[in-house]
Amino acid sequence: MKRIAIIGGGASGMIAALAAAEAGASVVVLEHNDKPGKKLAATGNGRCNLGNSYLDADCYRGGDSAFLTEVFRNCSPEQVRGFLSKHGLSLKEKNGYFYPRSEQARSVIDFFTARLTALKVSFLTGCEVTDITFDGKCYTVSYQQKDRKASETVVADSVILATGGLAGNNLGAGPFGYEAAKCFGHSVTPLFPALVQLVTEDKHKKTLSGVRSEATVTLTCKSGGRETKKCESGEVLFTDYGISGIAVMQLSRYAGEAFLNSGSASLSIDFLPELSEAELLADMKERRVSSNGLTVEQGLTSMLQRNLLYVILLRSAVDPESHFSKLSDDKLKMLCTEMKQFKLPVMGTKDFASAQVTAGGINLCEVCPDSMESRFQKGLYITGELLDVDGTCGGYNLQFAFATGILAGLAAAGREMRS
Ligand SMILES: Cc1cc2nc3c(=O)[nH]c(=O)nc-3n(C[C@H](O)[C@H](O)[C@H](O)COP(=O)(O)OP(=O)(O)OC[C@H]3O[C@@H](n4cnc5c(N)ncnc54)[C@H](O)[C@@H]3O)c2cc1C
């Protein structure tokens, strides 16, 4: 019987354990938190968005996209969902986004722990894995159990490194997986937070804090003499440090990459994307005509959230209390520009503790995409966020963690993925 040690009881580790144990291997999972799946429990705001029916190259960033194509050719998102459903996880779809039917991330962890216990997978929780060595035949995994001084070991024929990235480091993330992979000859591309909030500079930050709005956000990055623009639509949320919301999170990795390369980044926010600048100007002119003694602020009320409108007026040097009917065409144009091209310099991203995923990771060309086996070290498999792949919001990171976990679990147990 193949002995497999899985380092990390997160998304990819648990599904790898299920695939390997079902294929007949003897599996031990080592997890340094007191319970497995702590990060999984926090996903999708506690609802666990674990996949998406839409898939194209833009859904993932990072290293070689050919690697991803191969991973999903070997274990497609449909096969991942089929695998979960076959083992009894009830799923539901909402606008292409997949969740457990319960919409409780907790129930996904319960699902895994019950199935793994039934398949006699050993769970060593509260165990910090500190070292992995290979003597030419077997692996020795050393770990430190909480509250015990002496280090203990597990011997295995194969090891699956499923320790995740650095994002959410309050949930158990740590650098061990990268260090262990390096000991076996792997290289790691620069790591930085992605799907993360942006720190911005604006003198009206306090007034804006708490404002929420649908918007189209354009991020301009400059680095190495190149300028790139990326655009996303969705909710933005102003905070005391800067800006958050889905549109900003989706763009954040490009800002992170620019800062990593000593570049700069800035945002331009269109709060009224449904109107062209000309349409907006015409609308504002009509409002001015019918303003009947209203102040500018009163005349424009309800177009935008109150505090946002107030800041836009201040930025355009328009006194909110002034008579709307007396506002010049130039000032109206300035207001339109502020509403449709609200500029914010980006000072940085929030750190790994706030991020949902790690950009960068173990070089994809060093791992086989059909099995997740290291090209340098037979019997060593690498899964999930440790690899140089970061998905966008929408279940893409768990989808990748699950696909790579299934492939590694089966391959380590000596089986192949069946369609
Ligand atoms: C707040 C938040 C919300 C998210 N929401 C979503 C979402 O809705 N959809 C989505 O697709 N993705 C989401 N993600 C991203 C997703 O959770 C991760 O990309 C995914 O869990 C990665 O799986 P993994 O198996 O690689 O790592 P993890 O799930 O992080 O598992 C790694 C495990 O290894 C353990 N470990 C680390 N080092 C050691 C060590 N030395 N010894 C023993 N154990 C160790 C960790 O404690 C952890 O349990 C979210 C992330 C965060 C932080």
Describe this structure in words.
32% of the residues lie in helices and 26% in strands. It is of the alpha+beta class. The protein folds into two domains: 3-192 and 356-412, FAD/NAD(P)-binding domain, CATH 3.50.50; 197-350, no CATH class. β15 and β16 (242-244) form a beta hairpin. The radius of gyration is 25 Å and the shape is elongated. The mean pLDDT is 96. Bound molecules: flavin-adenine dinucleotide. Flavin-adenine dinucleotide binds next to α1, β2, α2, β8 and α13.
What features would you highlight for this structure?
419 residues; alpha+beta; FAD/NAD(P)-binding domain; 2 domains; six-stranded antiparallel beta barrel; five-stranded parallel beta sheet; 13 helices; 32% helix; 26% strand; binds flavin-adenine dinucleotide
Secondary structure tally, helices: 13
Helix and strand composition category:
alpha+beta
Ligands, ions, cofactors: flavin-adenine dinucleotide
CATH topology of the largest domain: FAD/NAD(P)-binding domain
Blueprint of the fold:
Elements: E1 3-7, H1 11-22, E2 26-31, H2 38-42, E3 51-52, E4 60-62, H3 65-74, H4 77-86, E5 91-94, E6 97-100, H5 105-118, E7 122-125, E8 127-134, E9 139-145, E10 151-156, E11 158-161, H6 176-183, E12 192-194, E13 198-200, H7 205-208, E14 212-223, E15 226-238, E16 242-244, H8 246-260, E17 264-270, H9 277-289, H10 296-300, H11 306-315, H12 329-340, E18 342-349, E19 357-359, E20 380-382, E21 389-391, H13 396-412
Helix pairs in contact: 1-5, 1-13, 9-12
